[in-house]
Each structure stands twice: as C-alpha cells, then as structure tokens.
Amino acid sequence: MEAIKNYISEHKERFISELIDLLKIPSVSADTAFTQDVLDTADAVKKALTDAGCDAVEICETDGYPIVYAEKIINPGLPTVLVYGHYDVQPADPINLWTSPPFEPVIKKTDKHPEGAIFARGACDDKGQMYMHVKAMEYMVRTNQLPCNVKFMIEGEEEVGSSNLAIFVANHKEKLANDIILISDTGMIANDVPSITTGLRGLSYVEVEVTGPNRDLHSGLYGGAVANPINILTKMIASLHDENNHITIPGFYDNVEELSTEERAEMAKAPFSLENYKNALDIDAVYGESGYTTNERNSIRPTLDVNGIWGGYTGEGAKTVIASKAYAKISMRLVPNQDWKEITDLFKKHFESIAPEGAKVVVKPHHGGQGYVTPINTVGYQAASKAYETTFGKKPIPQRSGGSIPIVALFEKELNSKTILMGFGLDSDAIHSPNEHFGVWNYLKGIETIPYFYQYYTELFKK
Fold it and tell me: Residue 413 above 80 pLDDT?
C-alpha cells in the first residue's frame, strides 16, 4: 500500500483535471433547467467507474434522476463494501457572491489550503469526495491490491431528498447486499486533526404559504385595515423560538436524546477555538439555545431555521404594495429518536393553528430523513480509524456532525448494514454557499487513505 503515494504523485495532475471536468457540468437537481446536465453527469460518472476497473457498470433509471451502479466482485467469500455518493449539486445562487463562476473551476490558495483549493459548486459536496473513491478504486485495481469486493451506488437526487433512491434500495436489496457501507459526504475537524463522523442529524424540510387578500393591494388605501401576509409570516416565524432560543412547537422535544454529562465531556475534548470560529464567520458573538456550547448546538441539539423568505415587491426602487401572499422555506435539523415525519406533522399542526384571522396558512412538506449514530466499537469504525492513523500519523477523533444524510438510516433499515462516514472536507469549505471549495491536499489525502480502509477492514473482518 505504501506505493500509493508514488501513484498519486505520478497521476496527481490527471486526478485534478478529471475532477475539474466533472465540476464543470452544472448538475443542479433542484432546477429542471439543468436536467440534461444532471443526466450528462451520470454518464460521466459511469465512464469514470468503468475506467477505474469496475466489471459491471450501469445507469439505473428511476422516476427521477438515474442511479449509477457499479461493482467489482473478486471473490464472493470476501467481504463486500458498498460505496455511496451523489453527483448532483446545490443551486449556485446567489451567483453575484461568487468570486469566480461556480461551474468554471479554478484553483486558489487560502489560509486553510496553502497548497490550493478547487473552487466550484460541488467541489466538496459531493463530487470531489465521491471522486476520491473512484480514484482509490483505480489505484487498487491497476496495482492488483483490491482486497475485497466493492459496489458503488452514486445517485443524482441527494440534494432534493433522495426519494427515488429509497425505492431503488427497497427493490434491489440483493443487488446492493454488503457487509459495510462507506460514505464520504462529511468533514473533519482540521487537516492536522482528523476525525470520523459518528452521528448525523435528521431533517424535516417544509415550505409555508400565507395568503391574505385575493390580490396585491395599495398600501395607502388598505394599509392597517387588512392582514398583511408578510407581517403575519414574520410574526409567526418569530414565535417559533422563545427568549432562550428554545423551539416552541408543542411536543418537539419529547423524544430528544439527552447526552450524559460524561458524553458531553468527551465531546468537549475536541479542539475548538470560539474566537477562531467567530473570526472565520466575521461575527462578534455566537447565538443559540441557552445551556449548550457552540459545538453542542450544531450537533446534538435540534434546530429550526428559515432558509428562505419572500413576498411582495423586491425589485429596484419602491412599490407601495401589500402582497397577497408571503412564503418561507424552513428546515428542522433533528437528533436521534426524533422521527422526521412526526416532527413535520407537529410543525404543520402548530403553524396552521397560530394563524390569525384574516389569513390562510398552508404548510407543504418537502422531504426529510432520520438521524443516525454509528457505534465506535465496530470492525468498520476500527478499520477507518486505523486508515486515518496510517496516513495522518494520529488517531482520528469521533465526532457528531450537524449535517444530515437522510438515506443513512434508510440503508441500515433496508440493507441491515452499518455506515462508516469518512469525510475529508473542512467546515470552512463553504458547502451549499457561494465559493464552495475543496482542498487539493484533502482530495489527494482521501485517495491515499481510502485504500487502507479496504485493507484493514478485510483483515479485521476475517478475524
């Protein structure tokens, strides 16, 4: 395996060039204007997996965007690893905040990435991290060092809820049968502080619509006499948190997992500088639920956030109007034991119940998923830990993430498999934001580390 450093050095420019080509395709699954681009990306992923040495590669159609499936079965008696990733990306809006076009990848040096980072939508989430696995596979096949069986399932709808993936998994359990699932769609604490994600929050995502009068009205003739949907919506949203930033929806916290003092103390051992955190975000204070630290608020506590709000006139200049409608998109990050469908129902009932007379409220659920916690005493975790220790020179820290990958809980339910989350991005990589990027060092380090996971997992599995 030590030869992998030489292999990466020899093929470094090609590895980067191939990823840049993939990032140029605007595979935005949320916008139908990019439908052909999403389909083209699926074709590109299929070709990459074929070139990497997989024996069977196919595009599996769904009612939405296709799933790219591939496998390399070297011996049915050996363990099988299923690699999951996604080739779709978030919308790039707001475009004007990007320092370079989101689908014209460029490499720039940053304080966190002195060797350079690739700036492009999808660079870290998840094309760059998914492609690490493709290149790791290439290395193991071409050097005849693949120690076990590997399957790939790369989807195109992760950023819009993975609804068709759930159907695909349920209908192809035998095809997807595996001993462990491997995902790189998370991050680590720092380049010199490796970590493995052991927990993910769940998600409930809804859209709300408030309707007042049957048309937009002149704010002078009607102002003060009829319900203003924008005013009402903002008041309703403000009421969802109390003075301690505690969520006010009845029943919201009924099943929230409360970590012990000992568990919270272990979490606190992870390196963290509040001042650096604030400086990186250019804020003078943190904000959140009383009684919890910043790292606890964004990982082991549930949240409710407005992701978008609109209504009325937002163009240049002035237009004195009372809008007929106002809208908001709201996401709730959930912790283990909170069922996302139950939380969605609780939100819907509460939000509709607090609507004042003179306004109609409609809540439209979008998508969601369950939270997930993976134990650290499994063969899979031990293999991942050993792999990081080999390439980083230090043992990784187990860490819960504030993000959500809803299909992880689904995998365990349908395939009866544990998931290992080997992420190589950083919190500062601006995923879902303008100027998303992924360090070249991180990209190559992932390619170097992943083959060791296969080696150690196969060795531990045989014992």
Answer: yes
Read off the pTM. Answer: 0.84
Question: Do the Cβ atoms of 403 and 303 come closer than 8 Å?
Answer: no
Q: Please answer whether residues 84 and 154 qualify as being in contact, where contact means their C-beta atoms are separated by less than 8 angstroms.
A: yes
- Tokens at 204, concatenated: 């409930």
- Which residues have C-beta within 8 Å of that of residue 163, sequence separation ≥ 6? 64, 157, 367
Query: pLDDT digit string (tens) for 90-140?
Result: 999 999 999 999 999 999 999 999 999 999 999 999 999 999 999 999 999
Q: Where are the beta strands (DSSP E) in 47-194?
A: 56-60, 67-72, 80-86, 106-108, 117-119, 149-155, 180-183
Single-letter code of the amino acid located at 312: G
pLDDT attached to residue 1? 61
Strands (E), 191-243: 195-200, 202-211, 217-218
The HSE-up count of residue 285 (CA atoms within 13 Å, CB side) is 2
Q: Are 440 and 117 in contact (CB under 8 A)?
A: yes
Average pLDDT estimate for 174-200:
96
The Cα–Cα gap between 121 and 123 comes to 6
* Rounded-to-integer distance, Cα 281 and Cα 296, Å: 18
Express each pLDDT in 138-178 by its tens digit: 999 999 999 999 999 999 999 998 989 999 999 999 999 99
Under DSSP, is residue 216 helix (H, G, I), strand (E, B) or coil?
coil
Q: Give exposure, 261-283, as e/b (b: 16+ Cβ within 10 Å).
A: eeeeeebeeeeeeeeeeeeeeee
DSSP state of 193: B
pLDDT digits 0-9 by tens, 263-309: 888 788 888 999 999 998 999 999 999 999 999 999 999 999 999 99
**DSSP run (H or E) holding 363:** strand 360-369
Separation of alpha carbons 25 and 455, rounded Å = 33
Tell me the longest C-alpha to C-alpha distance in the chain. Answer: 80
Residue where the block lists tokens 């709201």: 330
